[in-house]
Structures are given as C-alpha cells and as structure tokens.
Amino acid sequence: MTDTRENDPNKFNDTPNIDAPAIDMPITDPVPEPFAVKFASRVERLPPYMFGRINNLLYQKRRAGDDVIDMGMGNPSDPPEQVVIDKLMTAATDPTNHGYSKSNGIANLRREVTKKYERKYGVTLDPEHEVISCLGSKEGFSHMCLALMGPGDTAMIPSPYFPVHMYGVILASGNVVSLDVADPDLFLRNVAYTCEHMAPRPKILIVNYPHNPSSAVIEPDFFVEVVRLAKRYGFLVIHDFAYADVAFDGYKPPSFLSAKGAKDVGVEFTTMSKGYNMAGWRVGFCAGNADMIRGLGTIKGYYDYGMFQAIQIAAIVALRDTEEAVEKQSLIYQGRRDALVSGLRRLGWTVNPPKAGMFVWAEIPEPWKSAMSTMDFAMKLLEEGNVAVSPGSGFGQGGEGFLRMSLVENEQRLRQAVRQISKCLSSPPAIVKA
Ligand SMILES: Cc1ncc(COP(=O)(O)O)c(C=O)c1O
C-alpha cells in the first residue's frame, strides 16, 4: 500500500508532545467508589419481606430459650408415612439413582399422578404431555409465570394473595390486578368486569382454592364458569391446588381439571408438601394443558435437572399406598381447627371454621383492630404472649385486619396459645390508630 502523505510536511505533527504540561493528569490516584452489588431491577421491584420482623423476633426468642407457640408458617410438623421414608432409604442405596434425573420427572411418577387424578376426580391425563413434576409446586408456578408472562402482560390474582401469586408474576415482568377472593360469585363477576374494561385484556387468571391465606373454598360450578370466561375472553388459567388433600367435615375440594374444557385453557398445580407431610422433599406437579406444560418444561430444561431420583421413587409409593394416611392427616387438622376456633370464639373473636386448608383466618377483634396495625398486633402477640401468627397484611392490603393462624401445632398447644393470647389482651387499648 502507498503512503499518500509521503511528501506532507505536517506528516508527524499529530505525534503527542511529551514535554507539554500534563494539564488533565490526576496528581494522585482517584479514591475508589465503595464496591457495591447492584441488583437487577426485577429484584429492586420486590418489597421488603413482610414477615421479616416477626421471624427475627421469633428467632431471638427461641435463642433466648422462650417456648414460642408457632402458628406462623404452614410448615407441616408431622412426618411422612414410614413406608415412604423406608423407600427413600432403599432407593438412596441404589447407585443408579444418584445421577441427574429427568427435569420433567420420571415416567412412573407422572403415571402415578395421572392415576390419582383418575381415581379421585375422574380426570384422564396423558402422562407424557399433560403432566410434569416440579421441585415443589412453588418452583413450578414461578417458572410457569416465566414461560407465559412478559412486559405488558397482566395476571388477575386473588386478594389477599399467597406471595408467589403476586411476585411470580412481577419477577416475570408482568403486571397484576388483584380481585377480592372472599365471595366466589363476586370474584367471577370481577374477572368478567376486568376483562371487559381492560386493554389489552389480562393474559392469565390465577386461582387458588382452598385459598391461602383466607381458607375460602368453592364448589365445582365455579370452575365451569372459569372455563366459560376463559374461552370468552381468551385468558389462560393457573389453578394452585396446594390444599387439595386437606379438607374437613366431608367437604371435597374440586379439581379445576374436572370442569369440561379445562384442559383447553389451563393447568393445575398440586403438591406433596401438605397432605403427605413432605414439604422439605420438594415434590409438586403441574397437570393439564399440553402447550402450557411444554412451555414450563422448556424453562425447566434450562434451569434444573429434576428431582433426586430416590425422592421420586419414594413419592410414587406415597401416592400409590398412603391415601388413607392422607385422610387421617386431614382429621388431625380438623381436630386442631376445632380446638383453635372454639378457643378464639370463647375469647369473643368472630371466626369462621375453615372447610379446608391448614389455616384459620381470624378477624382481629375490636378495640384492637381500630387501635393498631395488623403487623403491630401480631408483634404484640409474639412479644408479650409468645404466640407467633402471620399478620394478614403480609398477604397484601386485602389481608389488613386479619391474622392467619396455621394448624401445625398440636391441639394441646393450640389451647395453650389461646390462653396466652387471652392473657396478652387482658387490658384493652385506648383507640389511637390514625
Ligand atoms: C397456596 C400455596 N401454593 C403453593 C405452596 C407451595 O407449595 P410447595 O411446597 O409445593 O412449593 C404453598 C405453601 O405454603 C401454598 O400455600
């Protein structure tokens, strides 16, 4: 290549003059900014954890040796059936069970899920395309949100809400419209109204019956109407059926999938955490619409390698052989419900006994309700009464004025909790809340 500036007298004039004063040179090294981790905006959008104050105090009290009666989390305290534990142990000694498993779950486990659906709800499912295993239903639910939602998409959710119903959508960059869950007919009317008036229309309806935290329940007709509305307005349905196996007084929680046409529009999540006492095992399922299941499978294929195979094998035994124990466990919760509800009623509280689920949803009595926030009331019960409960406000504004009391302690301790609550509330407050 020829140098076109060969005879140019200014050819070297753009060479820096090293003798010139270094006007812009810093005299000392700059003070480094303190090192900080900046989270993604999706994390910045999350509110402070509402149960943090309660959990911190609970932890401190336990460390100090206080005997706190814990009605906070819905974390079952009874063990799974011995045959299930035995199967886990033998499966764990088999060297072939320790590699990566299939992210959508082994075929025999998915087949066992379809058998339970057939037996319990008369629902026929294809185990290959219409069922997927999850690392607990919460994992499956959040990844389903990631598969379906994005910026500009809206989900209708119940109010008050189980936190992942709100934040699974938010983490997937979606928006949320929350609808009062207490009256099922009103809830459905609000779904129709929202679809009529919102543009673009909501993409998803999230439902959860028996409901956490409010314990609201529905009858099968509810899901017939949900399917009709879904087809009319073109939204998808996710039913969180976590409390499918915990019901009282002969009430049978209906499966969304037993409504005609449900598989055309949605899916249902179930779990072994509650009825089977296997919360720490992390076994859940999603069943229904094959396209939605495929979408969840795609996300899961990138994020996880499935559940430890020994757990899956033991879960098959639990589903196949321990149905009776699941029914007995419901009776245990029913006895605890009766002990707690009758105790609270004796204190003058207005409480409806739940027909299903693991919680009593109790309105805070006056004058306390008008005198302080739900959070402060829950903190008072813990601080002065050694009783931990979940303040309803932890489940959104719709839960203000209520407490969620879980039924994981035994009857005797629940009665003791009522006595401690009574003592703690013996001097009513002057009403001061703004
Ligand atoms: C309504 C609801 N959905 C899902 C879950 C999570 O269940 P899993 O243990 O299967 O993730 C819970 C647990 O408390 C729940 O209450």
From TrEMBL:
Residues 1-11 have a biased composition (Basic and acidic residues). It is an enzyme of class 2 (transferase). Residues 67-421 form the Aminotransferase class I/classII large domain. Its EC number is 2.6.1.2. It comes from the Bacteria. Gene3D superfamilies: Aspartate Aminotransferase, domain 1, Type I PLP-dependent aspartate aminotransferase-like (Major domain). One of its GO terms (molecular function) is pyridoxal phosphate binding. Pfam families: Aminotran_1_2. InterPro entries: Aminotransferase_I/II_large, LL-DAP_aminotransferase, PyrdxlP-dep_Trfase, PyrdxlP-dep_Trfase_major, PyrdxlP-dep_Trfase_small. Its cofactor is pyridoxal 5'-phosphate. Signal peptide: none annotated. Residues 1-23 are annotated as: Disordered. Keywords: Aminotransferase, Pyruvate, Transferase. PANTHER family: AMINO ACID AMINOTRANSFERASE (PTHR42832), GLUTAMATE-PYRUVATE AMINOTRANSFERASE ALAC (PTHR42832:SF1). This is Glutamate-pyruvate aminotransferase AlaC. It comes from Rubripirellula reticaptiva.
